[in-house]
Amino acid sequence: MNKRLLNFENNHSKKRRFPVEKPTKSEETGHLAHNADSKKKPAIYSIPWPLYAAMLIVVLACIYLNVVPFSLPAALAVLLVLSAVLGEAGDRIPIWNEYIGGGAILAFLVGGLIYTYEWMPRQTIDLVIHFFDEFGYLDLFVSVLITGSVLAINRKLLLRALTGYFPAIIGGIAMASVCGVLAGLLFGKSPVEILTLYMLPIMGGGTGAGAIPMAEIYASATGESAEKFLSFALPILTIANILCIFTASVLNKIGNVKPGWTGNGELLKGNMDFNADQPEEKVELKLGDIGAGLALACTFYMMGTLFSKVLLPTILGVKIHTYAYMIVFVALSNVFNLIPANMKQGAKRLQSFFGSNLLWLQMLAVGMALTNFNEMLSALTIPNVIIAGLIVIGAFIGSAVVGWLVGFYPIEAGISAGLCMANRGGSGDIAVLGASKRMSLISYAQISSRLGGAIILVIASIMFGMFLG
């Protein structure tokens, strides 16, 4: 009798799979997880459709009656409610959901259209811009993802990954240069023009930490205005960023067809079987641990700020970004096992929540705050698109090949060390990783955008002085 009861309980427990205990497929791919009854009762954010429709009406009424408060709750309401319907729609459009990037990309593109053509009152757009920039949501999002993802990596695995990661970045830069020059020759452009006006802006780590300081280096070396450089560099960078996002989406599909080429978000081969001296401790996760993980992420961000603004803002004349310092400090705390296991688990759970349940919100915010379609259209010529496209492809191939040689999965290496060098910095990293459904690579992506971008600034200062000075 007892054996029968035990067998019944075991079999019954095997059938019950709750998303809260084990990541669902939607969490792994960046979608919102639904409850167990979502197939019978359509829901979004676990909200029944009638109730969600009522919430949407309230938000739209506030937007178009121009009574949206200039506050954090209002910004969250606008982004959460609107991104939900865009994300759900994008994940259900045939072809788009498989090859273009699904709901994340639809939210990003619609956000860009809202910003460019002011499909909403300016007050709402300014609110989102302030939420993203002045309120510092991007900093919070990236800080949580960096802390959780780095602390989740085995210590020995982390050391092995970093020792091979910088060669993968250099491989991407080299191949991007070669492919860009070859493409430029087809359209009568000199190698110097391709390297200085195309390759460097694209591979420079984005706008704020890449193109803008690069423009100042250009002005100092040539005596011309920084605006002249930016007027061409920003559209080219925008085109490359879009191409990186679409390439990432295609690579996700290729990974499904060629499983041997991908670790499904794991950079280093053999990660799942790696037996280091730091086995993952099983701890009972409490709400307090998640709060501790949030405090930890914010404190690491403050530590990075302290070094980037006061203690050591530059190294060899190159400005070091807050995220770069943050990655170093989080990695060191993991290597030396300074963080208790329960706090690591709390930071990891928080990172999983931000990287999955808030991804659509993040993508809509990126579009509404940073994406001007007119910039892209002004440089949308066939030669520029082809040149930028080959630079992006070269960055992926170079990083993928070198990554494969040092023991990385080629798709993960190409995305994190290649595409995340060629996109638009931190916001581009989120878009690329969201499209590729590999948000777990955020820490490596930040290494590419920040430390890799710093390498590009050093190269730019040398090349501008040699060829344009």
Explain the overall architecture.
The protein is mostly helical. It has one domain. It has helices spanning about 1-15, 25-30, 50-65, 70-90, 95-100, 100-115, 120-130, 135-150, 155-185, 190-200, 205-220, 225-255, 285-310, 320-335, 340-355, 360-370, 375-380, 380-405, 410-420, 425-435, 440-469; strands at about 45, 45-50, 315, 320. The strands form 2 sheets. It has a two-stranded antiparallel sheet with strand order 1-2. The chain has a two-stranded antiparallel ribbon with strand order 3-4. Helix 12 packs across helix 18 (about 380-405). The protein is globular and about 60 Å long. Residues about 1-40 and about 270-280 have low confidence and may be disordered.
Which sheet architecture does the biggest sheet show?
2 strands, antiparallel
Unreliable stretches, pLDDT < 50, 5 or more residues?
A: 1-38, 272-279
User: What Rg, in angstroms, do the CA atoms define?
Assistant: 23 Å
Strand order of the largest sheet: 1-2
Name the beta content range.
under 5%
- The figure for the number of domains is 1
Q: Give the overall average pLDDT.
A: 82
**SSE-based structural type:** mainly alpha
3D shape = globular
Distance between the termini: 89 Å
* Topology as a string of helices (H) and strands (E): HHEEHHHHHHHHHHHEEHHHHHHHH
- Roughly what percent helix? over 70%
The total count of helices amounts to 21
Q: Would you report the number of β strands?
A: 4
